[in-house]
Design a protein that fits this description.
Elements (H helix, E strand, L loop, with lengths): L2 E2 L10 H7 L16 H20 L7 E4 L2 H18 L6 E5 L4 H11 L5 E4 L9 H7 L4 E5 L13 H11 L2 E5 L18 E5 L10 E5 L25 H16 L1 H20 L4 E3 L10 E6 L4 H8 L3 E2 L13 H5 L4 H5 L1 E5 L6 H21 L1
Parallel strand pairs: 1-11, 3-4, 3-5, 5-6, 6-7
Antiparallel strand pairs: 2-8, 7-8, 9-10, 10-12
Bound molecules: pyridoxal-5'-phosphate (PLP).
Length: 380
Amino acid sequence: MLAYLDHHASTPCDTAVLAAMAPWWSEHCGNPSSRLHRPGLEAAAAVERARGQVARALAMPSEAVLFTSGATEANNLALKGIAEAALERGERRRRLVTLATEHRAVLDPLAWLARHGFPLTVLPVQPDGRLDPALLEAALGDDTLLLSVMAANNEIGVLQDLAAIGRLCQERGVLFHCDAAQAVGHLPLAMGELGIDLLSLSGHKLYGPKGCGALLRRRGVALAAQQHGGGQEQGLRAGTLAVPLLVGLGAAVEGALADREERGRRLAALRDQLWRGLEALGGVQRNGSATATLPHNLNISLDGVDGGRLHRLLRRQLAVSSGSACSQGSPSHVLAALGRSRRQAAASIRFGLGRATSEADIQRTIAAVAEAVAELRSAV
Ligand SMILES: *Cc1c(COP(=O)(O)O)cnc(C)c1O
């Protein structure tokens, strides 16, 4: 049996979430924008329930929630939407600031904006993946429009000090966007208290369906639409709302919050057990902070093994990844930012534990890695 330890790439949709979604595919077929009949109104009410569930999870009002197709779209809407709105009002501030370890769904829209007149600063991180506060202080000048920093890294799990970052942004008049796709449902996040202006999340990273997500926006933050059409979502994201997926997103967020603490404690204990077992193999380095990290993440580099061969051996027994699911083929830019060589980055394993992970999975995982490493090291 394959042990699935790739929960940062995607999580299984919870069975209660599937059940909540079921009637909304066919039985209740209304378009939430059809306000003249009951099926339409029912669909609209279901979407508003989901909006409330998502908003409550971040301690925000319902109006803050803009539904999207996922975190990639939410990031694009946030970053390009802020830039375009700034352009429209003749804003002097143009500089965009981010971290080298952000997800491609932040780095790529920012690189696009950099080619269209918005200067970009990409800050390095410390060897443990954390942002150096002094570097950030120096980077946020009176030309800075926006800072984008993720809540939890999708490869190494590392958490940034969002409250301190948010305070600094407020002092400097800089908008703060946070890609929280790996954090919502896994960590407590009160968006307003943290000084976050815009926050992106994704359904399939928190035991919900793929193809849905949201951008949460603080009141008064000007955003320009990036998709035009029927005027849905306050005119900021046109397109018929994906009612079943959004019902699923709401149920998933609520379900993830309900067992968050207990799950976090249990998975942290299993993760520590996994680390102890792997550390004992020797020549193993942990990537990213061991303390400021998600409870269900472990990322390691193995000395003296070829990454390609390692993963070919492991995939018979384990579903894990090297680097992120979204950068197939190229070496991880996150591990490079921590100072790992190409070879070390290739010989890395990202473990993402989840709700269904058992102690037997952990033991099997340690045994599988031990076996692969012994084979590859003896061959050298
Ligand atoms: C998965 C992920 C995304 C992309 O989310 P989708 O909903 O799959 O588009 C963006 N950012 C981070 C940090 C992620 O983990």
